[in-house]
């Protein structure tokens, strides 16, 4: 990985920085590509990680796409399709990696930034955090999976309302809707996000990956098919080193050491 903005630390936390102070904390295309490379390496077994943290390096999590660059493109349609395809392939690798995802949502998360938040399992916001679809404001439609993910979080009718009216959701409203998981002081957002990530990194890797997979795949399965998937998953995990350690530790009334049995 070429940048310290995309890296794995000693705790197994893969940091993916999606924006910097440049261009008003717009989504950084090069960082999207670098993040894709890192996630692809995880899926291929070339990079070991336990959890992903999504963050921004400026005052905002991500203020959306770089509209000035949209306007400057010789062929806007081709340029926007390329940007969307790159973002979508990055997110596809995020799901393929099966890693739990924590988002440190400070400041604004607008447009593609809001889309990214919706892919987090745990999204930590600050008291000043605000989210906004932003697409209708520039006459465009969502990308980054917003129109797929938001209805699954808030319901289809509410999702249409939020996106079409370009609502600004403050932190409390986003928490109420289930988009944010927790609100902390603005200056504690990243610290809390990394604390949550460290807890996940020390936990049962197989369990978390299975939970993420089951929750997402459950949206398109019948209940009976999902019963079968749950039964198969819990059975497989019970025979893994982590599953055995978890049960044995419970019976011994001690804290499980999941890292020690990997």
TrEMBL record:
Entries under InterPro entries matching the protein: ClpP/crotonase-like_dom_sf, Enoyl-CoA_hydra/iso
Cross-referenced CDD domains: crotonase-like
Domain of life: Bacteria
Protein name: Enoyl-CoA hydratase-related protein
